[in-house]
Design goal:
- By secondary structure, the protein is of the alpha/beta class.
- It has one domain: NAD(P)-binding Rossmann-like Domain (Rossmann fold), CATH 3.40.50.720.
- The protein has seven helices and seven strands; from the N terminus they run H-E-H-E-H-E-H-E-H-E-E-H-E-H.
- The chain has a seven-stranded mixed sheet, sandwiched between helices.
- Helix 2 runs parallel beside helix 3.
- It is globular, with a radius of gyration of 18 Å.
- The protein starts with 7 loop residues before the first helix and ends in a 12-residue tail after the last helix.
C-alpha cells in the first residue's frame, strides 16, 4: 500500500497548482459519443472538478465498437446518465450538471450562460448546433474546441489541433469554415484529420452511416482532453527534465 491519492501521479506532471486549477474548473462537453466520451474520460481522470454534460441520445449496439461509455449493460440507457455514473466512479467529488435534449440555436445560449464554464467541447455532428456552440462560446469569450469528422478514417496519427482556418481535406471542416466566415467568426480551435475520408457506398449506392473503428475517435478525444487539460492547468506540454515514470 502507498500514500498516493487520485491525483498524485498527475500532480507530478502538472504540479499542485495545476491540479488545483483543474479541480476548480468546469468544462462543458457537448456530445458523449465516440469522441466526447473519451474527452470526458481524460478530463475526469485528470481531476477536472465540474462538468456540464449534454447529449440527447441513448446507447445502441452499434456504439459498442468505439464509445467508451457503451457496454452491453448501457444499451438503451441515456448517455448523460451513464456519463455521470462513469465520472462519479472515478471522482465521487465531481460536480455534474446534465442536459438531456437535442442541442439547437435556441437552447445553446442558455446552457453557456451557466456560471463558471471555463472550457467548451463541441463533439457533436449536427452542423447547425455546432455553429451555435462555437458562436456562443466565442461571443462569451469562453475557449472552445470543435471536433470535425472522425468517421471514415483509419489513421489516428493524421489528427491535427489548430486554427480551423488552416484545416484541409475534412469535408465537415470545410462547411464549418464557410459558415463561420459568413458570421465573422475567426480564431476557432478545432481538431480535424488530414487523411482523406474512406467512403464505401452501400448496396445500390444508397447512403450509409459513417464507418468507424475503436482507435480513431478515441485518439481524437484524448487529444482534445490533452489540449484542455494543459490549458486549464497552465502547464506547458514540453517535458520537464526532472519528470520520471
Amino acid at each position: 500500500m502507498t500514500d498516493e491519492t487520485f491525483t498524485s501521479r498527475t500532480e507530478r506532471l502538472l504540479g499542485s497548482d495545476g491540479v488545483a486549477r483543474l479541480a476548480a474548473s468546469k468544462v462543458a462537453v457537448f456530445g458523449l459519443g465516440g469522441v466526447g466520451g473519451f474527452v470526458l474520460e481524460g478530463l475526469a481522470r485528470a481531476g477536472v472538478g465540474s462538468f456540464l454534460l449534454a447529449d440527447c441520445d441513448v446507447f445502441s449496439e452499434s456504439n459498442l465498437n468505439r464509445q467508451i461509455l457503451a457496454t452491453l449493460d448501457t444499451i438503451g440507457r441515456k448517455k448523460t446518465e451513464v456519463a455521470r455514473e462513469r465520472v462519479k466512479s472515478i471522482n465521487p467529488d465531481a460536480k455534474i450538471e446534465l442536459f438531456d435534449a437535442f442541442l439547437d440555436p435556441e437552447n445553446v445560449p442558455e446552457l453557456l450562460s451557466r456560471d463558471g464554464i471555463a472550457y467548451v467541447i463541441d463533439a457533436i455532428d449536427n452542423v447547425t448546433a455546432k455553429i451555435a456552440i462555437v458562436s456562443e462560446a466565442k461571443r462569451r469569450g469562453i475557449p472552445v474546441v470543435s471536433c470535425m469528422g472522425t468517421g471514415n478514417h483509419l489513421d489516428p496519427t493524421r489528427f491535427v489541433i489548430g486554427d480551423l482556418e488552416k484545416s484541409s481535406v475534412c469535408p465537415l471542416a470545410r462547411v464549418m469554415r464557410t459558415e463561420l466566415r459568413c458570421r465573422g467568426i475567426k480564431g476557432v480551435t478545432a481538431l480535424w484529420s488530414t487523411e482523406p475520408p474512406i467512403k464505401r457506398a452501400g448496396e445500390d449506392g444508397e447512403r450509409v452511416p459513417p464507418a468507424s473503428v475503436s482507435f480513431v475517435p478515441s485518439v481524437a478525444g484524448l487529444m482534445i482532453a490533452s489540449h484542455v487539460i494543459t490549458a486549464l492547468s497552465g502547464v506547458s506540454t514540453e517535458r520537464k527534465k526532472d519528470c520520471s515514470l
